[in-house]
Write a structure and sequence with these properties.
The protein has 4 helices and no strands. By secondary structure, the protein is mainly α. The N and C termini lie far apart (about 30 Å).
Length: about 90
């Protein structure tokens, strides 16, 4: 996923294509695994959402919101719980 904020159109096209593939896969009863660097930190998104502020959610987080709405989740979160990085 492009990180440059100026590439909003490309990010939106990629997000829409990923959504389409996931919806088609789910409709066909497929198991879906999405891997890659989305250049959007879900923890930062959660902080924005939970802050109850009127801060606008940046478009780079649309992919995370979209994936969550499709029932996808970050499996790494569960794996890393309780892990203390030194």
């Amino acid at each position: 996923m492009p990180a440059d904020p100026k590439q909003i159109n490309e990010r939106m096209n990629i997000t829409n294509q990923i959504e389409s593939w996931i919806k088609n896969g789910l409709r066909d009863n497929k198991s879906i695994i999405l891997m890659g660097d989305l250049n959007a930190d879900p923890e930062k998104l959660d902080k924005i959402i939970n802050s109850n502020s009127n801060k606008k959610i940046e478009d780079k987080y649309k992919i995370i919101l979209s994936l969550r709405s499709l029932g996808m989740f970050d499996s790494q979160t569960g794996i890393n719980q309780g892990y203390n990085q030194t």
